[in-house]
Design a protein that fits this description.
This protein is globular. The chain folds into two domains: about 5-180 and about 265-310, Bacterial extracellular solute-binding protein, family 7 (D-Maltodextrin-Binding Protein, domain 2, 3-Layer(aba) Sandwich), CATH 3.40.190.170; about 180-265 and about 315-355, D-Maltodextrin-Binding Protein, domain 2. The protein has 14 helices and eleven strands. Helix content is about 40%, strand content about 15%. The longest helix is centred in the last third of the chain and has 35 residues, at about 280-315. Bound molecules: (2R,3R)-2,3,4-trihydroxybutanoic acid (EAX). (2R,3R)-2,3,4-trihydroxybutanoic acid binds near residues 101 and 224. (2R,3R)-2,3,4-trihydroxybutanoic acid binds next to strand 3.
Length: about 350
């Protein structure tokens, strides 16, 4: 658990009775993941950029090499090499090989890591400048992808990315994590009442934790790299993530039940160390920005493709899917919008709502 997140949680603890926070507090998010690091053999993984490129940018993710984040980054890598005539490239490190998302953000801000593609999970606790990002983590904020893309690619999204100015991190754009679904190994979860007493792993995010508490579960925050063994050992009963991640991280091997609750639309953000970005020549900036935009568009497509085949594949593996009555879940989750201790910015919320019409 990072110090910043711990401090934030302590604040929340004073105003909320989050019984699970103590459990979450025991989990060190700083340690590298148990999963094997990405191979550095280009031939084997195709994840390292052109060996003789002048500028290699090292980018980390917590996700699998065949997941949408990494496949999108590979598209960006190819485009960057093409645009720069092979002068610039990305070296991609999947599977938490460089650490958890919160740690990678800190490493990018201090310059010990060049880039990260991270969910918004750790962003609201990253800096006071990004506190209002909590608002994006609210449940049922977007009804579909189109609403999310409209807000995130428009003026609201642009201003949010600018919140990072001066933090050491330059936020480039919103890629996609996806709509988050719930898995568990105890029983079929149809209604929020079925969550009573269940220990659910959430991201290190106050809004997500408060939402699961609101729904009657016991949330435990931990970095993604620790989740597999936590599920295997039964430290937690369940977790939530987009289908594309549940499939490619093989979560289905240790979780029998999957409920299609679509609780949060989770964006991810491509970030680079601010000094590195500001040090680019105008030409390098142009190559980089264009390749990043291309990577984003491709990644969103890949995310949708994996998502749409994931259910059938996991059903084949014996996972029980449950389609829930969404209205019931919305009703049970909405009181979290009134929670004054989780950093929601009501002005930003109003802007988002006027854009989506929700
Ligand atoms: O960003 O931690 C999570 O659940 C995230 O969805 C994952 O690391 C990808």
């Amino acid at each position: 658990m990072t110090k910043k997140f711990l401090a934030l949680l302590m604040g929340i603890l004073m105003t909320l009775t989050l019984t699970a926070c103590g459990g979450g507090g025991d989990k060190p998010a700083d340690k590298p993941a148990d999963k094997p690091a990405a191979s550095t053999d280009k031939k084997e993984t195709g994840l390292l950029g052109k060996a003789d490129a002048e500028k290699h940018l090292k980018v980390g993710t917590t996700t699998a090499p065949d997941g949408h984040y990494v496949l999108g980054l590979v598209e960006m890598q190819k485009k960057l090499e093409e645009l720069s005539g092979g002068k610039m490239t990305l070296d991609i490190y999947p599977n938490s090989a460089l650490g958890g998302e919160s740690d990678m953000m800190d490493a990018v801000s201090t310059g010990t890591q060049d880039m990260v593609l991270s969910s918004t999970g750790p962003i609201s606790s990253f800096s006071t400048a990004t506190k209002r990002w909590s608002t994006l983590d609210l449940p049922y904020l977007f009804k579909d992808r189109e609403q999310a893309y409209k807000v995130l690619d428009g003026d609201i999204g642009k201003k949010l990315l600018e919140d990072f100015n001066g933090t050491g991190v330059k936020a480039i754009g919103f890629w996609e994590n996806g709509f988050r679904e719930l898995t568990n190994n105890k029983k079929e979860v149809k209604t929020p009442a079925d969550l009573a007493g269940m220990k659910i792993r959430t991201m290190e995010n106050p809004v997500h934790m408060a939402t699961y508490t609101q729904l009657g579960a016991t949330p435990t925050a931990m970095a993604w790299g620790e989740i597999f063994s936590a599920l295997q050992q039964g430290t937690v009963d369940g977790q939530e993530n987009p289908l594309a991640i549940i499939l490619t991280a093989k979560v289905y091997e240790v979780q029998k039940y999957l409920s299609m609750i679509d609780l949060f639309y989770s964006p991810c953000v491509l970030m680079i160390n601010e000094d590195i970005y500001n040090g680019f020549t105008d030409e390098q900036k142009k190559w980089f920005d264009e390749a990043a935009e291309y990577g984003k568009q491709q990644e969103r497509k890949i995310s949708q493709e994996i998502d749409s085949k994931a259910r059938a594949e996991m059903e084949k593996q014996g996972v029980t899917f449950t389609d829930v009555n969404k209205d019931e879940w919305v009703k049970a989750a909405m009181p979290v919008y009134e929670n004054t201790s989780i950093g929601i910015d009501n002005e930003l919320l109003a802007q988002i709502r006027s854009e989506t019409g929700n």
